[in-house]
Amino acid sequence: MRLLAYCLGVLMVLGCASQPTANRMSDQQFTDFAAALWQAEQQRNQAEDGRLTDLSEERLARVAAERKEWLDRLAAIEVEHLSEQNQINHAVLTYRLANGYDQYRFGAHRMPLTAESGFHNSLAFMAQRGGFRQLDDFEQYLSRLEDMPRYFQQQIDWMRQGIADGMTQPQEVLTGFEQSIIAYVTEQAEKNVFYTPFRRQPESIRDADWQQLTERAKQLIQEAVNPSYQAFYQFFVDEYYPNARQSLAANLLPEGEAFYQNRVEHYTTLEMTPAEIHQIGLEEVARIRAEMQQVIDDLEFEGSFADFVDFLRTDDQFYAQTPDELMRYAAYLSKKADAALPRFFLRETLPRTPYGVAPVPAEIAPKYTTGRYISANTDRDAGYYWVNTYALNRRPLYEMEALTLHEAVPGHHLQIALSQEQDSLPDYRRSFYTSAFGEGWGLYAEYLGLEMGFYQDPYNNFGRLSFEMWRAVRLVVDTGLHAKGWSRQEAIDFLANNSALSMHNVVTEIDRYISWPGQALSYKLGELTIRRLRQEAEQALGEDFDLREFHHEVLKNGSVPLQVLEQQIHRYIESKQS
Which residue, 42, 100, 68, 2, is CA-closest to 426? Predict the structure, then answer.
């Protein structure tokens, strides 16, 4: 009712339920329209405060229909008559809504996990991301814990439907996955990750209230949380894993070819075919391989490329001996990168939000990627650069410079925190993230390290090239697996033979690409786009080119589809020239 009233009050001239027609809007009309659209999305979430998402068939169908109607209305707007910022707003809103609608129509809710994580891991972020300060924060959190049995059962029901429809993850990538489920079950409630918010009492909560909250938390962990995870564990072991599909390719799923093409376009924000991307990948692999061989030649290493990679994977000098040693090195590199930022970024391009360095949580570390950035949840929190300290003999030190630049600064933390702090942008822009831009920027940040004074050691430079190769190989293996019929072993061999990644990381990564079609394509295509645009700006502006200014132009609008970024940089070049 609130949404209907808002639509009628603000958008009467548009008609909330009208059929889409060609529509020329003023900027104020579009701003009101966009506000109504975003409020509809927000109210959908706010209505569930104190509950986990309702995954009933009726609700999912209703949400998809509402998003389809908004998309039709967006498509009818004459975008060329809007201001530059509203054109970006239109593109971002369309992208955000289209993904939610497309995921529903292709049945993503029947397959709510990848090889490395799933909905059961995502729930743990409720406990780990902070924001618990008032009594109401804790009470809503406890209500969500109480709601877990219903939520888990709905997920299980959809996964059963996925088994019946042939919409499951491949069995081949799920070996050992059950350990990521049972890890959340603990005998002592106080040791459970979901008890985390109750390990420190806020000053705003009275002792008597706090006593009740903590006792209720312990009770719910024993009566709702543990049983939910135990039930999911048994379902996975007894039903899901034995009946998971034997095929790998996304194009063999129901509506598979259309689904994979949709995921390609979503994650790259470009209109490209798998065949085109595969060829770009082969060309990039050949170029980077030649640069890697040059490093080997300069070191005067006696042996083949494979011999050199084996040396890197097995020699103790390249590995930390303790988790603390690895974490200290990551922290040192982070501060070194911090100090270099003013030479490459304008002051207004540097975010105010700090970041920390922390290990990947033990519950997910065995099957988790080597590092990741976790953004700040509120303005009272920091961002975090996660480093995986599981299996230290698979976390080479020569990769740490590239990893740190990618995940911390000038990579993800700088870009994401800056976007969150852009008060002039609407909420749906500040909270928006697309892999093509964000991961493309992260890989560009690795490259920028050359100019920042990193990679002076040839082994670290080889690690950078290995990371770049890793992303180039993704273009080949993702399209190979999902469009060209590659086997898992073919993909493993191609990545292993062209990079210095440990075999543990190689296998983990390939399983990730198999279970998350298209996402791996975003990194390299995003980086190639940013580097191409920089080259165009350098050539067009000559002595007037300012790298700090260019970086500001890339980042000032937050995360945007690559086609929007290209338009923005071309406008910047034209403006500078005139």
Answer: 42
